[in-house]
Design brief:
Largest sheet: 7 strands, mixed
Oligomer: single chain
CATH architecture of the largest domain: 3-Layer(aba) Sandwich
Helix content: 25-40%
Number of helices: 37
């Protein structure tokens, strides 16, 4: 889909991000632009476009007054909206932003100092808290000390009105993106407004990130993926973006998924390690009520994408609505702003198996997936519009053909100008030319090796030895320098650092030569190396290998051969003196920590409570650190144990759960020892362990918690309605119908062909049915005026229930006043805590609400996935008392149905209850309309609970439960939704009874309904309309893939005399936006054919590119079926 259509009806400027933000200020000032989750849950601060613009103007005015236009400003903000305001404040002032991260106890001060020196920064923007903490860390003679420091949260609000629009355009330098890697020689990529706008247009088009997309990011905003993907691209589209601190994600990975669920996020992602972390760390209990069905694009980049990671994540979270086709592996780098290649939306990742030996030799040969010579590689997508990607021999600069490995070269308007103040490196990296075309275009040399196979880019490694672990780049020479300084017995110039894949994870390995003496304690050497590397690089070595002096492979000129060292490690040919590899002891038992360890260091505790807190801290450290924490003391530095950031966050998360609450984020970087952690807990959380971890206390109650008009849910509804109004089309909802709705309806005096009501058999409006209702009114009145248990029971009720039970083929039935309440009260009443409810991922809201009401454990399984259900029950059945499986006869959104016999088999195998919601299948499926038991030839008694509604095939309203005598009797006397509710009105009961008897006499109505639906499906597919999974049911969707286009199409059909409602985001994901056709027995051949023709004609005018994508969608659906 084109960029213009994705952003329609808006037309934002393409001159700069300053003009872009000012455009959204004019178009949607009150709409939420950014929301930051303070606690990683629902507590948030937000900026509307109006608020963001004002904060940016306040900061920009001060910068302008200081004469800083064209200068560089360090951004040293903690995660939050202050960074967003500071970044746009720089753009608003024509100042070049330099994103970094505030110093933490001097640990990253050297890198910040190096960036400040390299950028020739004039000032630093931060917040007052960080400024106060940082002052004590600054060396008086350093560049950092000499900077102008500005706490932007203390600026005068009135200054905004004095701001002047700077002279900026697409060629203006916007910011320097410093690449992660070497501390000694940082490189800042120069990115202009034009670079960013171009890359955002690629991202938006490729991701299909329209104006109604909701993005979410926990990635650090000083990193290209977090800044461009999480901040700039959402603003490019004018879409809301939910932000969260990386630390909160690392502490508790489920916060990411819960944010996706709570805010119906459509686009979010991260490096490969993030998906691994979710799979490993999120527990079943944390997934209660998680719904990932809105997540339509889960990008994966910044480090090699692993097939095993994607497969494990999908298997783990598919029951919660995550779809495999949401995965979106991609490739990019800071030098290209962000994105270079990406795959096709709504298609599973491309996985191919290639011969490993051939790849090592630079050739590409496909291998058998199940052979031992193959290497599975994930494709990173294809070339994007308006860019050129070549595979080049890095030595002779000649282009390589497809299926040959070479360096990836890129030419694109997204490529930055070069590295700040580094002309030679810029020329080498950004100005590369092919040997046979010296006058041709400049190319960016990526330094990555890869190849094209069937037009898909596969990335295989690095030309140089850059280490990438958990999405973080480290240069081996930096680590090697640290290793050689760590201990006197390590020889200078004789160490190698590299990464290897062990047990599905990238591991950092250090090999170094040592001077050997008698009685050497090699544990001391290894401990020193691990401690120093972890402290300086925040990346603990997973393996430390000490080798004999003179044994490390070197070139003739004396350079370390890291690849040869790596090979020696893998084939065990190194001359090893001593080694320690953490994975070899990760499965070991943790020793008992019931008592305080003996210590020669003073224990800084003053009370018994303090001692208990300290003991708890040390227990949790031992539980995570395992063999690395055999001897720890109150003053032991947790960092120096060799724990990486993920492990440290795991400790904090465990402690927060134990003591109930959350440590302030600005405190976390300041605590390192066990004693400091314990002191922080006592100060901020208290010494008492929590009965219910995580419950927070609200000292002040915000307005949104006691005023309906300020509720975030209501404000979101208003934003959605604003988007609807912005299309200029009438609201299609709550239209007033002026007649009986059958195959036709009357609206505003016009008769229209009607496909928006489920009067499947034409019973509503039938003379015999209407007559029966009128007779019942004359006999019983318009209401039974009581609960049926008391005095509301009428003869028409018992007759109706007998007819339903006979029609379904079971003992008895019970009628409720509403279909939704039938499911809600039955499920909610029959099951409770200690039980398990498993339902289809596409289950109706009433089923989900009933499960929530019950208090039972609720877990969805993949749509129609009886095999996955069977596997779930193998794992979970014996953990629960009762288990209920809930499926639907016909799914009302997609028009497909389950394999009922297989579900019956699973239910019997695992001794579970089975419930079938027949709202759309009773009366329509089976030769006589008796539903799914007749359709499949299944014995009705094989299903424990048959639920149906009276409003669709039976021309009335209400719902029923049909089953054995015992369950009906129990519900009749105890179900709250029945006992404490008025009985079904006499007219409705009589109408349903008459309809049921009429269907018994005229079963051809059911047959005619399905024949008409099959005709509509045939006509629609002949015109290349995507009908999804629908087959042989009265529900036929036409999937449009765009809410705006679905809305427009519905309106155009209305103008042509056809009434059909659009189903828009968030009711379905944006890619599933559709028109839903309810086909009835009353529709004529002419009405159906003319409607299908009109849909195709109008859609061709609204979205000409639809039919190309629809072909591939329909093919994919066919393959799935």
């Amino acid at each position: 889909m084109s960029l213009e259509k994705l952003l329609a009806p808006f037309k934002p400027p393409t001159t700069s991000f300053v003009h872009r933000l000012r455009y959204w200020l004019d178009e949607q000032p009150e709409q939420m632009a950014f929301s930051f989750l303070i606690d990683g849950d629902v507590n948030a601060t937000s900026y509307s476009y109006l608020e963001l613009d004002r904060r940016a103007r306040i900061i920009a005015q001060r910068l302008q007054a200081m004469g800083m236009e064209g200068e560089r400003a360090l951004l040293l903000y903690p995660p939050g909206l202050d960074f967003v305001a500071g970044f746009f404040g720089c753009l608003y002032a024509g100042v070049v932003a330099v994103p970094a991260y505030p110093p933490r106890r001097n640990r990253n001060m050297a890198r910040i100092q190096a960036i400040a020196d390299d950028a020739s920064a004039r000032l630093s923007l931060t917040v007052s808290d960080v400024l106060r903490r940082t002052e004590s860390l600054l060396d008086k003679g350093s560049t950092m000390h000499g900077l102008n420091w500005l706490a932007t949260d203390e600026l005068d609000d009135d200054a905004a009105d004095d701001w002047k629009l700077p002279d900026v355009d697409e060629n203006t330098l916007a910011f320097l993106q410093y690449t992660s890697g070497s501390t000694g020689s940082p490189k800042g990529v120069m990115l202009t407004h034009g670079n960013i706008l171009h890359n955002c247009s690629l991202i938006t088009t490729t991701f299909e990130a329209g104006h109604d997309t909701v993005g979410m990011s926990w990635l650090p905003t000083y990193h290209d993926m977090g800044l461009v993907g999480g901040v700039l691209n959402p603003l490019f589209c004018g879409q809301p973006s939910i932000l969260m601190s990386p630390m909160l994600f690392l502490q508790r990975p489920v916060r990411w998924l819960r944010a996706v669920s709570n805010f119906s996020v459509t686009i979010s992602g991260g490096p490969n390690f993030a998906y691994d972390l979710c799979t490993k760390k999120i527990t079943e209990d944390q997934l209660t009520d998680i719904d990932l069905s809105s997540w339509s694009l889960a990008f994966n980049g910044a480090e090699p994408v692993r097939r095993e990671t994607l497969e494990k994540f999908y298997r783990r979270f598919a029951p919660y609505g995550f779809r495999k086709e949401a995965f979106y592996p991609c490739y990019g780098m800071a030098e290209t702003t962000l994105l270079v290649t990406g795959g096709a939306r709504r298609k599973p990742p491309v996985v191919r198996c290639f011969d490993r030996s051939s790849l090592d030799e630079g050739r590409v040969n496909v291998a058998a997936p199940d052979g031992d010579r193959g290497r599975h590689v994930i494709g990173c997508g294809r070339k994007l519009p308006d860019e050129e990607i070549l595979i080049v021999d890095p030595d002779n600069r000649t282009e390589m053909p497809e299926d040959r490995v070479g360096e990836i070269w890129i030419s694109s308007r997204s490529v930055g100008r070069g590295y700040w103040n580094k002309s030679e490196v810029t020329k080498e990296t950004f100005k590369a030319k092919l040997a046979d075309d010296e006058s041709g275009p400049d190319y960016l040399r990526s330094g990555d090796l890869g190849f094209f196979h069937e037009n898909e880019l596969f990335v295989t490694g690095r030309i140089k030895d850059l280490i990438i672990v958990r999405g973080v780049n480290r240069y081996p020479q930096d680590i090697e320098m640290t290793v050689e300084r760590a201990e006197r017995r390590v020889r200078n110039g004789a160490s190698a650092a590299f990464a290897v894949d062990v047990e599905g994870r990238e591991r950092l390995i250090v090999v170094c030569e040592v001077e050997r003496n008698r009685d050497d304690d090699w544990d001391e050497v290894i401990d020193a190396i691990r401690r120093d590397v972890t402290t300086e690089h925040e990346l603990p070595p997973d393996g430390v290998i000490l080798v004999r002096s003179g044994s490390i492979p070197k070139t003739s000129s004396g350079k370390i051969q890291r690849h040869a060292c790596r090979s020696g490690f893998l084939d065990d040919s190194l001359l090893i003196v001593a080694r320690r590899c953490v994975w070899e002891s990760e499965s070991g038992q943790v020793e008992s920590v019931d008592e305080m360890p003996p210590t020669t260091q003073p224990v800084s505790v003053s009370t018994a409570d303090s001692a208990r807190v300290l003991n708890t801290v040390m227990q949790q450290v031992r539980a995570v650190a395992k063999e690395r924490a055999k001897e720890i003391y109150p003053q032991t530095s947790i960092v120096e144990l060799g724990l990486d950031s993920l492990e440290r966050m795991e400790i904090i998360n465990l402690l927060e759960e134990t003591f109930g609450g959350q440590l302030p984020e600005d405190v976390l970087p300041q605590i390192e020892t066990c004693q400091e952690v314990a002191d922080a807990i006592i100060e901020h959380l208290g010494a008492r362990q929590a009965d219910k971890p995580g419950r927070r206390r609200y000292e002040t109650i915000p307005e949104e918690n006691f005023q309906f008009g300020k509720m975030t849910e209501y404000l979101q509804l208003k934003r959605n309605m604003q988007i609807l109004r912005s299309t200029g089309l009438p609201n299609p909802y709550f239209q007033r119908h002026e007649s009986v709705t059958r195959d036709t309806t009357q609206i505003e005096g016009r008769e229209l062909i009607n496909f928006s009501s489920y009067n499947y058999l034409g019973m509503s409006g039938d003379d015999a049915v209407a007559a029966a209702a009128k007779v019942a009114i004359d006999q019983f009145g318009t209401s039974v005026s009581a609960s049926r248990l008391v005095s509301g029971q009428k003869t028409v009720h018992t007759e109706l229930e007998r007819e339903i039970a006979d029609f379904v083929g079971v003992d008895d039935a019970l009628v409720y006043v509403g279909g939704h309440s039938t499911n809600e009260t039955t499920i909610g009443h029959l099951f409770g805590p200690g039980d398990l409810i498993l339902h289809d991922a596409l289950a109706h809201n009433s089923i989900i609400q009933g499960a929530i009401l019950s208090g039972a454990r609720r877990r969805p399984f993949p749509h129609n996935g009886w095999e996955e259900l069977d596997q779930l029950l193998r794992e979970l059945r014996h953990d629960y008392r009762r288990v209920l499986i809930v499926i639907e006869g016909v799914y009302s959104m997609d028009g497909d149905y389950p394999n009922l016999p297989e579900f019956v088999t699973v239910k019997k195998r695992h001794k579970a209850f089975l419930m079938v919601d027949e709202a759309h299948s009773i009366g329509t499926m089976g030769d006589h309309g008796r539903g799914m038991s007749e359709f499949f030839g299944v014995a009705p008694t094989d299903v424990d609970l048959w639920m149906g509604t009276l409003s669709k095939s039976f021309g009335s309203c209400g719902g029923y439960i049909a089953g054995c005598n015992e369950v009906v009797e129990y519900l009749k006397y105890t179900a709250p939704g029945f006992v404490y509710s008025v009985g079904l009105s006499p007219s409705n009961a009589a109408a349903a009874l008459a309809s049921l008897r009429l269907l018994k006499k005229e079963p051809e109505r059911a047959k005619k309904c399905i024949e008409n639906a099959q005709l509509f499906l045939q006509e629609a597919q002949a015109r290349r309309l995507c009908t999804g999974l629908s087959k042989d049911t009265p529900v036929v969707p036409v999937v449009i893939g765009s809410s705006v286009n679905a809305l427009r199409l519905s309106r155009q059909l209305y103008e042509r005399g056809i009434n059909v409602q659009p189903i828009l985001y968030p009711a379905v994901e944006e890619s599933g936006a559709r028109l839903r056709f309810f086909v009835t027995a009353n529709h004529t051949h002419e009405q159906i054919v003319n409607t299908a023709k009109a849909v195709a004609e109008e859609l061709a005018l609204i979205a000409p590119s639809y039919f190309a994508s629809a072909d591939s969608e329909q093919t994919a659906v066919g393959n799935a079926i």
